[in-house]
Design goal:
The chain is mainly alpha-helical. Helix content is 54%, strand content 4%. The radius of gyration is 19 Å and the shape is elongated.
């Protein structure tokens, strides 16, 4: 059959991609002050399931030097209210 190629019919490919998209999660890295500032907007995307905080890079890009596990550093790594709201919306 011409046009089917090795991946089968179009409906089979569509089902495959739909299934994979449902099973795949998206967790962007937050490693800059700009990303931290824009966290609410990032989490508004229906494609984003949560975030990963890169504490060392975040500390460096905010001009605070290396991450030292201080109370100030740890406060930055705690989940924000925006994350909790995203979780509530997911059910």
């Amino acid at each position: 059959m011409l046009g089917q190629g090795r991946y089968g019919t179009k409906s089979r490919r569509t089902a495959y991609f739909d299934d994979e998209n449902r099973r795949t999660a998206c967790y962007p890295m937050v490693e800059t002050a700009a990303a931290l500032r824009d966290l609410a907007e990032i989490l508004k995307s229906p494609l984003v399931d949560g975030i990963f905080v890169g504490p060392s890079d975040l500390s460096l890009t905010r001009g605070r030097g290396r991450y030292r596990f201080s109370s100030e550093d740890q406060a930055t790594s705690r989940p924000s209210p925006h994350c909790a709201k995203k979780q509530e919306n997911r059910g």
